[in-house]
Amino acid sequence: MANIQTARPTLALNPSPFLSQENTMLVRIAVHMDSDLRCASRLEIAAQLAAQHKAELVGVYVRYLPFRFYKQTGQSDEIYSPIRTKLSQEEEKARTLFEEAAAANGVLARWKSPQGELGPALALQARYCDLIVMSQFNPNETSAPQYANLAEEVIMGAGRPVLVLPYAGKIATPIGHSVLFCWDLGREAARAFADARPILHEAAELIVLTVDEEAERMRPNDLDPQDISIYSKLRKYPEPRIVSRPSRDIGVGCTILNAATDYGSDLIVMGAYGHSRLREWVLGGASRTLIQTMTVPVLFSH
């Protein structure tokens, strides 16, 4: 019997008629405010992003005392008074900086100063926003208390995308002109692609990178590399350039960073902790590699 193949009709793809400028924009952006060295540059990038999307900018300054003081509830108020005064002065300085940046960029601004532990407080505020802007841990920071795992804690706990900025080097603005999206067919990556929708809609270039591509996962599930191109076109994203690279012996994280450099990407979008967090802590993984050694901003989603 002859092997007969039926040709599939070619569909004309048009952007979805339900998309509008309003429903593809960020509407509320949080930024972590503190007294650290990168606060001013972090704020400026968040304010520029808010201006680009006509979004409200929310400055989040967490009022807290170092952990050891929580346990000293029996001590005299003389111990706490100078600490409270110093923290109040630092908050007022941060608030002034925030209000000046918001005014300079012409954006609506709101100040939040919750009390409590830093990570959970930031994560809770982020849930009322489209994303939160933070900085990578800086091991050389001396002007403010530093928490090595703060970004990870917020990424895992917020339920919102977290834009993490590298502490070293000058960051190209506006962020999101050329985006590198890391695609591994996983849930976290799909979530990141959806969470980045407002930024992707404004991007000029989109690179879709798969590291150590597993073709055997594609065929039996009737998946085609062009599926992501079709989705992107319907979403009014740039026509994606689909690339694949082997990690060889340098690891997935370093392969992603190398690709971002090679393609001139100013933003990486990726799902965080596709493996268990414990496994990545013990064995290492792409999420931790990028959190620790990022060279461009990374939008993480979990």
UniProtKB/TrEMBL annotation:
The record ties this protein, via CDD domains, to: USP-like
Alphabetized InterPro entries for the sequence? UspA (IPR006016)
What residue stretches are annotated with the UspA domain?
Answer: 179-299
Family note: Belongs to the universal stress protein A family.
Q: Give the protein's recorded name.
A: UspA domain-containing protein
